[in-house]
Amino acid sequence: MKQKLKKIGLIVIAAGLTLGQTSAAPVHKPKPAKQATPAKGKWVSLFDGKTLNGWHGFNKKGEVKNWTIVDGALVCLGAAQGDTGGDIVTDKAYTNFELSWEWKIDKGSNSGVMYHVIEDPKYHASYETGPEYQIIDDLGWPDKLEDWQKTGCDYAMYLPNSQKKLAPVGTWNTSKIVFNNGHVEHWLNGKKILAFEAWTDDWKQKKTTGKWKDYPDYGTAKTGLIALQDHGHKAYFRDIKIKEL
């Protein structure tokens, strides 16, 4: 009888030890599912072809009256006096991106597309901070144009190469700006017409000895708004889209 009780006691002790080991074992919780991240590199339209949603006047609030929509195109009416007061900018700021658009101008017209534009009452125009993809009637402009003033330039900074081929005035062109951590490209009608690196010694030399020497904040922002210029002439834009990099 004693031996039987002793045997039962040993069994109970062994079971207790086994239970203790089991309960002390680490519990491996299932890993949480990975959170979905926004897809990168997707083209997003900046113009719906019907409204000015997503845009506003540079340094202004309220209704934009000097731009309108005609046949699915965003049209600058050329109401600004000179090169200030009429630009429109995106509501959203961008850092690294590809920006693509179609455009045309009338004979003798001037416009442009700028990026990394900063709004502040101390700035009178978008170009005081934002580098510009120049758009102008190279052949029909009434005054002599310097090479740095012609279509496709990084205005007053870098010149297009021999790949530049413009469609005739009054017909549509396709342009693109690529900005990626200081590397900049301008494209026109499917061809890369210039490339440069921002903020290098060469860039600084061009800035401080040329048109922008009196604009200390020109080109220094790494994030800012996209701007379409009203230079007092009619200009037409459509299929405006951006892909963040």
TrEMBL record:
<dbReference type="InterPro" id="IPR010496">
    <property type="entry name" value="AL/BT2_dom"/>
</dbReference>
<dbReference type="Pfam" id="PF06439">
    <property type="entry name" value="3keto-disac_hyd"/>
</dbReference>
<feature type="domain" description="3-keto-alpha-glucoside-1,2-lyase/3-keto-2-hydroxy-glucal hydratase">
    <location>
        <begin position="42"/>
        <end position="243"/>
    </location>
</feature>
<dbReference type="GO" id="GO:0016787">
    <property type="term" value="F:hydrolase activity"/>
</dbReference>
<feature type="signal peptide">
    <location>
        <begin position="1"/>
        <end position="24"/>
    </location>
</feature>
<protein>
    <submittedName>
        <fullName>Uncharacterized protein DUF1080</fullName>
    </submittedName>
</protein>
<keyword id="KW-0732">Signal</keyword>
